[in-house]
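Exam prep: given the inputs below (a chain plus calcium ion), describe the expected output before reading on.
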Amino acid sequence: MLTPSLEDYLEEIYRFSQELGYIRITDVADKLNVSLPSVNKAVKVLSKKGYLVYIPYKNIGLTEKGARLGEFLVKRNQMLQEFLKVIGSKVDREKEAEAMEHYLSRETVDAMAMVVGFFNENPGLQDKLYEFQQEYRKNQPALEQ
Ligand code: CA
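Solution:
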């Protein structure tokens, strides 16, 4: 198990490896808005745990284990954003997914993915849910902030 912060590092590292084909400490630092030493430290820990191969000043590469978990983390993030859309939550979905993602069990993640799959395959039911929601919201007192 990785800490939430290490999961975020691995998630972004996997994204860069997919999008650019290479991984740079500076890119990861910019994306996560952290310092270079923080990324360096995380990269060292991740390579020690067998997720990355790291040759200082030269190269960062994902191991098979790292790529597998990285892919899961990226997909989980996408799925959570889709889930929020499916349930009609009008939040900043990117931000909300970031806040939720590290604290869900695999069981719950799978169940949420199933809900997303269900509504994708049944757009008529998705529309029904949204209609219901509109009525429901009209009759709900506003939540206190
Ligand atoms: Ca994340």
